[in-house]
Amino acid sequence: MFSLLERMIAYRYLRSPRQEGFISVIAGFSFVGIALGVATLIIVMSVMNGFRQELLSRIVGMNGHITLQAASGPLMDFDDVAAKAKTVTGVTLAIPVVAQQAMVMFQSQARGAVVHGIRGDDLKKREMIAKNIKAGSLDLFGKAADSNHPSDTVIMGRRLAENLGLRVGDRLSLVSPQGNITAFGTMPRQKSVTLVGVFEVGFHEYDKSVIFMPLETAQGFFKMGGPEGKAGVSMLEVFVDNPDRVAEYGFVLRHTVDDGVLISDWQHMSSSFFQVVQVERNVMFIILALIILIAAFNIVSGLIMLVKDKMRDIAILRTMGATRGAILRIFFLTGATIGVTGTLTGLAGGLAFALHIETIRRWLERLLDMELFNAEIYFLTQMPCKIDSGDVIATVGMALGLSFLATLYPSWRAARLDPVEALRQ
Fold first, then answer.
1. Per-residue confidence at 1, pLDDT binned at 50, 70, 90?
2. In sequence order, which residues have a C-beta less than 8 Å from that of residue 298 and are 6 or more positions away?
């Protein structure tokens, strides 16, 4: 497409001599602007994708993909409902859960928490919990931890345990907001339990506020009883093989389980949260794309100045037989080279930064002696990052497209230059 002569002249114009050094400065700023724009866009999009993926995996992994609840009161006959739900193709788990708030007390410390009553076997099937036990063991969950002090067992998030000063083997008290009615008034309902495990899933809100206790114990403690002495649950958490298709599974479940069961999915319950993340992602893409656009305008201004400065050279080339197409290709190649090299440099830098962003964050925190990523604000304990090939291709394509478009008008002006008029000036 480009002859050797055209490439040689274009390359020489990129290395302007001293009297034309200002043009080289503009070309340098254009190169740096495109490289920074591409790198920044890749990094920010990767972090936003990482946030969405981490939040989704933790929220869905802790709460289930689809929730089945009774229209009012506890969900009774939950084992029968779970059996019906498992008959739906794509449903992998149906776990009964009691979810209630309680106060956790240890010595002089007290914290609010959300208690999840769940069977030990079901808890082990939750990989997010089973694979992130940092202290203790799930094997003791639901068993007597101490024969001298028979009590029920619980596991809790690491940050909650640290805030209370708890360690595995310590006994603590749970206080229910629903008190016992006695002749002397309503008395707080309290239960002594033993901590046998500590988990850390990396989601700050769960690590500081979630406690798991055996299902039967939670049913009794929170009075989930129903008619005929049966005990119910707060909900039935259903897991499917494809979380993105929960709407389809929910439609089938509505025709499978009883009419009195209310069905909701994670997309409905967390829709506003993830819509905010998506809006922020789109806005950041538009804002950061302006950096590349500004760099493209620098290419336009630099090439226009180069054409103005090289008018006599263009006239001489035309008189020596160079066609208008050759002149156009020379200046197009000059501007495109800046765009291509800047884009490739930004691509390499952005990918390298994104792949090592957590290491860079920790290094900057040590260097600046300040916290750059607060887990209490961002909900995660580590800087998330997920490089999406679609975003990278879109960023590179946009940068190259703007760079090529920026070179068209100056190149066209150079090709349309009249040699006679140029030599007169």
1. low
2. 26, 29, 30, 33
